[in-house]
């Protein structure tokens, strides 16, 4: 007998919110006319290497020191609070083109829960951009740790327990193999990988790379494809 998920837990940044284009837009605004010379893919490669430092600030506040580190290499202006503007831009990063509509469709079938490594202040802006689709939303401020720490997943399950939900009810949806797909599969979740970078030729972009990809239970390139599967009743729990 097959079981359908009752809850979809979502990574937010990179899965629903297009942080790469959000950062690019912020850099172009800071650079002005000089933005035409920015090699953004090269910037993402350097950014990715700095994202997982053990001494880093919480996201997106860690964007400030990263900006200053990369400023010289990419001719970014400093001295006028540009790094603070780069951080603040996180509240207005765009959603992927299909995110809002797909989330509305998914709401008809499941409770939607956000699990983001972003601070609460940044998530509040992202939640607004997504038109407030979530039944519940959790940030690094509440969890006290960042994914892929398994304690983040344990914390969310504890918060969902009073509503009668267990891990067996949850389908975890994410873009990041490093932060989400690998650890969630290891913990026994049914997982759905939204491979957002497929549209631009693959690779890891601004997301921390992994040596080996984890095979998910469901693999789509857009959130709309996931919503299509839900509308057709094709999503079942397989973990």
TrEMBL record:
This is Hydrolase. PANTHER family: HALOACID DEHALOGENASE, TYPE II (AFU_ORTHOLOGUE AFUA_2G07750)-RELATED, HYDROLASE, HALOACID DELAHOGENASE-RELATED. The keyword RNA-binding does not apply. Keywords: Hydrolase. The keyword Nuclease does not apply. GO terms for molecular function: hydrolase activity. Pfam families: Hydrolase. It comes from Gluconobacter japonicus.
